[in-house]
């Protein structure tokens, strides 16, 4: 069996107000072309199909068209789950009818316990859920109240879910899991003993690879770069097909694409297939003179790419209509930032802040935002507020 693994389409997403729909349509065309060229047996969309729980009508129409192309025009099965961005109940609409043409869609936890059976594999589709969803589900399943109340973290919930999924395993088949969570590598025991926090990120417990050991392959969604995959071979993020933010534009290593996963009785292999952006997102960080120097800008994909520009060493008071000027040279500018000339190093700033009195601090902040000092009236207002605050103390 050969599956195309993609995720995090986020149809309807915008980048600082600019619609990404055309970009998403262009990526979809390439995904479809890869699926056909590779003769895949199905397309997996591992969650975050839409960007929001209540997508725009444009987004709904676009996705509808995409799913029709895959499933009706090309008769390819679709294995799709809801991610944390999708509205699980809303996206669930039509689920039963869609299954008649092999468009399998799981958006609710309760739906995860019926794997799709192919002659040689079981495909488990576990949509995003949170501990509260798990509590509700297990309460309905008649789990004793004490045990339901003991579900606090996603780990608690996942332990129960995985135990139940294992009951469904067919020993004669390969097992594929499609899901939408942050999963981190399980570190070896020695490291684990020295650090209590190895499986915690930002104070939150995350899932770890070892919990999914009994699956032959895990197709993940949620993190937008395949480089975050927790395991080289077996547990992979497909990444989003489109760059969604300027941070991604900065990285040269974020090639977008899909995985072609071939599952046979004795081996599972994966091949990454790149997707080219229709409109690239280029991040520039230069001083003003460089930005308006033809020798520099003529090397850029003017009017073709989208630009995110940071003007360094910038004296705001000396320039007007910066955006308009840059737009005339570069075309679409989705993000414009400045680094002021007078900006001191972080260390200096911190030390200075410690030395400032409260009213000086407010004044300096006001100045850094507006470029002006507080007027006498404003200064008086700030003084009054500070006096009042001191009284409260
Ligand atoms: Mn996502």
Supply the key terms.
393 residues, binds manganese (II) ion, six-stranded mixed sheet, Purple Acid Phosphatase, chain A, domain 2, alpha/beta
Give the topology.
Blueprint: E1 2-6, E2 14-15, E3 18-19, H1 21-37, E4 42-46, H2 57-73, E5 78-81, H3 88-91, H4 95-98, E6 103-106, E7 116-117, E8 121-126, H5 131-140, H6 145-149, H7 154-166, E9 174-180, E10 183-184, H8 189-194, E11 200-201, E12 204-205, E13 207-208, E14 217-221, E15 235-237, H9 246-250, E16 257-263, E17 268-274, E18 281-287, H10 288-291, H11 294-297, E19 306-314, H12 322-330, E20 333-340, H13 346-355, H14 358-370, H15 376-392
Bound molecules: manganese (II) ion (MN).
Manganese (II) ion (MN) is lined by residues 8, 10, 48, 83, 85, 222, 224.
Q: What features would you describe in this structure?
A:
The protein has 15 helices and 20 strands. It is α/β, with parallel strands linked by helices and 393 residues long. It has three domains: 2-274, Metallo-dependent phosphatases (Purple Acid Phosphatase, chain A, domain 2, 4-Layer Sandwich), CATH 3.60.21.10; 281-340; 346-392, no CATH class. Helix 1 runs parallel beside helix 2 and helix 14 crosses helix 15. The radius of gyration is 26 Å and the shape is globular. The chain binds manganese (II) ion. The site of manganese (II) ion has 7 residues, from loops. Manganese (II) ion binds next to loops.
Q: Using the coordinates above, name the CATH class of the largest domain.
A: Alpha Beta
Terminal residue distance? 69 Å
CATH topology of the largest domain: Purple Acid Phosphatase, chain A, domain 2
Going by CATH, the architecture of the largest domain would be 4-Layer Sandwich
Heteromolecules bound? manganese (II) ion
**DSSP strand count:** 20
> Spans with pLDDT under 50 lasting ≥5 residues?
190-203
Structural category is alpha/beta
Major β-sheet strand ordering: 6-5-4-1-16-17
Report on the biggest sheet.
Answer: 6 strands, mixed
Percentage of residues assigned to helices: 25-40%
Specify the number of helices.
Answer: 15
């Amino acid at each position: 069996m050969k599956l195309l693994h993609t995720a995090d389409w986020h149809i309807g997403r915008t980048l600082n107000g600019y619609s990404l729909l055309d970009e998403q349509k262009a990526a979809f065309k390439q995904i479809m072309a890869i699926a056909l060229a590779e003769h895949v047996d199905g397309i997996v969309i591992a969650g975050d199909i839409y960007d929001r729980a209540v997508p725009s009508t444009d987004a709904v129409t676009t996705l509808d068209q995409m799913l029709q192309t895959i499933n009706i025009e090309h008769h390819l099965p679709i294995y799709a789950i809801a991610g944390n961005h999708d509205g699980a109940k809303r996206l669930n609409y039509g689920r039963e009818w869609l299954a008649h043409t092999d468009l399998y869609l799981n958006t609710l936890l309760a739906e995860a316990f019926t794997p799709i059976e192919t002659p040689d594999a079981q495909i488990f589709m576990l949509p995003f859920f949170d501990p509260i969803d798990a509590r509700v589900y297990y309460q309905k399943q008649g789990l004793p109240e004490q045990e339901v109340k003991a579900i606090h973290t996603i780990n608690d919930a996942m332990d129960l879910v995985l135990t139940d999924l294992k009951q469904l395993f067919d020993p004669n088949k390969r097992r594929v899991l499609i899901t939408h969570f942050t999963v981190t590598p399980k570190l070896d025991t020695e490291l684990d003993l020295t650090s209590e926090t190895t499986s915690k990120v930002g104070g939150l417990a995350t899932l770890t690879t070892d919990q999914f050991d009994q699956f032959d392959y895990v197709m993940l969604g949620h993190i937008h770069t395949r480089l975050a995959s927790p395991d080289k071979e077996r547990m992979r993020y497909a990444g989003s097909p489109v760059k969604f933010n300027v941070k991604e534009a900065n990285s040269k290593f974020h090639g977008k694409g899909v995985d072609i996963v071939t599952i046979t009785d004795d081996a599972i292999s994966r091949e990454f297939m790149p997707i080219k952006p229709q409109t690239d997102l280029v991040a520039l960080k230069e001083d003003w003179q460089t930005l308006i120097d033809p020798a520099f800008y003529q090397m850029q994909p003017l009017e073709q790419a989208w630009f995110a520009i940071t003007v360094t060493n910038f004296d705001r008071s000396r320039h007007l209509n910066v955006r308009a000027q840059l737009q005339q040279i570069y075309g679409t500018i989705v993000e414009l930032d400045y680094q002021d000339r007078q900006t001191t190093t972080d260390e200096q700033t911190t030390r200075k802040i410690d030395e400032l009195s409260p009213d000086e601090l407010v004044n300096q902040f006001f100045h850094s935002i507006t470029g002006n000092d507080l007027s006498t009236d404003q200064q008086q207002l700030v003084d009054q507020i500070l006096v009042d605050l001191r009284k409260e103390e």
